[in-house]
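Chain A, query sequence.
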Amino acid sequence: MLTNQTKRKTERYAYHKGDYEAIRKEMNDVKWEELLQDKDVETAWKVQELMEKYIPKCRTKKKNPYINRKAEQMMKKKYHLWKKYVESGMMMMMMK
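Chain A, predicted structure.
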């Protein structure tokens, strides 16, 4: 259908596979007052480290990451209907 478009592999977090109990435990063990006292945001960025550690990433192969599933279904339906129309010969009859 959309052969000209290249598939993009995007990496994102697989939140449904995350180990949230381990994240909770580790966040409870952190001494937040010491961590956040007189430090900038980049130094105190503990949540991102926990995400990297306990939430796996997965790759998606999507032709266009900005088109949702419903739009893809509608595009496929339109393509198949067009193909059916062309094969039926109605287009040639209209041109005569």
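Residues 16 and 55 are 9 Å apart (CA to CA). Residues 66-96 form one domain.
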